[in-house]
Amino acid sequence: HVRYRMEASCLELALEGERLCKAGDCHAGVSFFEAAVQVGTEDLKTLSAIYSQLGNAYFYLHEYNRALEYHHHDLTLARTIGDRLGEAKASGNLGNTLKVLGNFDEAVVCCDRHLEISRELYDKVGEARALYNLGNVYHSKGKSLACTGTRDPGEFPEEVKIALQKAVDYYEANLLIVTDLGDRAAQGRAYGNLGNTHYLLGNFRKAVMSHEQRLLIAREFGDRSAERRAYSNLGNAFIFLGEFEMAAEYYKRTLQLARQLKDRAVEAQSCYSLGNTYTLLQDYEKAIDYHLKHLVIARELNDRVGEGRACWSLGNAYTALGNHDQAMHFAEKHLDISRELGDRNGELTAQLNLSDLQMVLGLSYSTNTSVLSEIQDTDTSVPGARPKLSRRRSMENLELVKLTPEKVQHWN
Amino acid sequence: SSLMNRQTGEIQSKAVPSKQILHSDDIEMEPETMETKSVTDYFNKMHMGSLVYACKRKNK
Questions:
Q1: Contact (Cβ atoms closer than 8 angstroms) between residue A60 and residue A71
Q2: Nearest-CB residue to A320 (from B15, B19, B36)
Q3: Closest by alpha carbon to B28, among A132, A253, A113, A229?
Q4: Chain A CB within 8 Å of residue B35 CB
Q5: Could you tell me if the ipTM is greater than 0.90?
Q6: Per-residue DSSP letter, A385
Q7: What is the pLDDT of residues B24-56, one digit of tens each?
Q8: Cross-chain Cβ contact B39/A52 below 8 Å
């Protein structure tokens, strides 16, 4: 009798956890699942489902070590009870989690297992998903290897290209199946990531073709976030094709959607990209306009890295226009921010720019004189100026800051 | 010095940035797909199973 009550309560707690996660409240969902685990159950299939969902909830909450722990429990359990489909799923989830944690080799082993079992069970959907996951692992591996140097896409070392080519192969294998299955949403995802991989490999035409397909599918679904992503990725590819006007058009659409979706960080990124594009088009007035918009949002978001970049870009654009006073102002700000962030490269660039500008202005000028500190003093009196030691949130960390709604959809 | 040799023209050309400033890492990826297990599905199946069982017994 007591056992029956215990089982019922575990199930009720788990069902409530499931409901909450589906509604997008993973935080609350986790508490219910944890409580269900505490109560416990002798039904191992129920327990496996609870572990799996706890793992996914922690994944969406970006608590990857916890996610790893629960997906591992799930895998062990699925193997113990001889649940092949359950083992495949747990392996896939474990693979995705290991990928995010940067453990690519183990991730490949897990995703391979997902693929192998899916094929064994003639589970086409599972097979396609495993192929997509493998593509993602190789893409991330390639990107992480590439990150050690700052090169333009297409100019990476051999090991990077090998990993990225594998990603292409997996995405294409995935596309064959999901096209056959008529799964448009899955096609959209594969095209997006395939496009990004081609972009990194320097196959910019192919990247454009993939992102155009992605765009088409995003519109079919009325998925505006995916549409915005496609515009932004298309803009990037056209930059490297040297078609700057096209790039500007796509970045403008990105900006428009970012504003509609009220995503300030993406809006800032679009302005920055537009500023750079107009610089490449040598339309410096427009470049300045967009870089100033970017600067405003970077300040609003306390993004010192973004602010530094904006200042550097503005310095360059004003220099190109021959407005050396403004150029000097922003070069000084860039120097200031680079020092604060301990960015040695930025600091050296800024110093070089400053000495060049000083020569143009014919000034004898030292960055250590009171002129700089004077400028700093006036700046702190500007309304809305940030305290110097404000919390930094760089544009590079945006990936982590992005919230879950889009991902939570996959619960449903 | 080399600094003295730099001319205004060079400053102008420097203002045209390398494509690198666009940071190749700003590409936007599609979301991951996680595999899902559900207590609800399992619960429903269990119920369906026992209902079918009950019906069969009735028919006997």
A1: no
A2: B15
A3: A229
A4: yes
A5: no
A6: P
A7: 357 899 999 999 999 887 777 666 555 555 555
A8: no
